[in-house]
From TrEMBL:
Keywords: Oxidoreductase
Domain of life: Bacteria
Entries under PROSITE patterns matching the protein: PDH_ADH
PANTHER family xref list: PREPHENATE DEHYDROGENASE, PREPHENATE DEHYDROGENASE [NADP(+)]
Protein name in the entry: Prephenate dehydrogenase dimerization domain-containing protein
Pfam families, A to Z: Epimerase, PDH_C
InterPro entries: 6-PGluconate_DH-like_C_sf, Epimerase_deHydtase, NAD(P)-bd_dom_sf, PDH_C, Preph/Arog_dehydrog, Prephen_DH
Residues covered by the Prephenate/arogenate dehydrogenase domain: 4-282
Amino acid sequence: MNTQAVVVLGGAGLIGSLISRILKQYGYIVRVVDRRPPDFDCEFHEMDVTQPFNHSGAVFRDAIAVVFALPESVAVSAIAWVTRCLPSDAVMIPTCSVQGPFFKALKAAAPQQRFVGVNPMFSPKLSVQGRTVAVCVEDVQTPQSFIERHLMEAGMKVRRMTPAAHDELMALCQALPHAAILGFGMALAQSSVDLDIVAEVMPPPMRTMMALLSRILVNPPEVYWDIQLENDQATAQREALVQGLERLQENIVEQDYERFRSDLQSVSKVLGKRLNAGAVDCQHLFSLLN
C-alpha cells in the first residue's frame, strides 16, 4: 500500500481531477485543496489558495509533491507559502499552459525546490490513451520523475522540454490558433448576415471554424486569456498573424496574383511532407461534418 501523499491545489477542476485520479490509481494519498469538493473520493480540504489558513501546513504533512492545477497567476502567487510548508526534496508540479513564469518564480523563492511541469496537450474530458503530455524540467537529461512514469503507465505519451522551450512551442501551438479563431469570431460578430441562413449553406471550412469557435466559447474564458496574456512569446505569434492578414489584404487590393501564389508556395514548402498528411486529415474531418 502506497502511503505517500500528494497535494493537488485546485484538485476539483478538470486538470486537477485528471491528475488526482491518476495518482489515486497508483495508490497515492491524494489531498485535494479547493473551494469546492471534487466529484471523486479523496481527502478534501476546503481552502482558498489565495488566502491560506494559518494551519494549512497540516495539509502538506509528509507530502512528496504538490500539483498546482491553478491559473498561472494564482499558481505563482501560491509558491511562497506552499514552499514554506515543504522540504526541499518535494516536487512542485504546475499544470500551467505557460510554464516559464512559474519556473522563474520558484527558482527565485526556493532555488533548491524540485520542479516538474505537466501540461496535458488535450482536453481532460477526452480519453488519455495515446495523448501527449508536455513535461517541463530544468534539465532534460535528469532521471524520469514519478509523475512522468505514472502518466506513461496510464497510457499517455510524454514529451520532455525545458520551460522556455515549452512556452515557445505553446505560443505557436496554442496562442496562435486560438488567436486566429478568436479573430474569426470577432469578425463573425460584426456581420449583418442572418446566422440561421449561414447554418443552412455553410461549407465544411466555415462549419469547422464555427465548431472551433464554439468549443472556445463554451469553456471558461480565463483559460484562453491566460494562454494569450501569460506567455510573453505569444505576442510575436499574434503579430505574425496580423502581418499575414495584412499581406493577404495587400495582395488582393493590388490584384497581385503572382505574389499571392508565391506566398502559398512558401507556406507549402514550410509544411513539407506534412502537407499531404494534413490534406488527408482535412478530408477526413470534412467527411465527418458532411
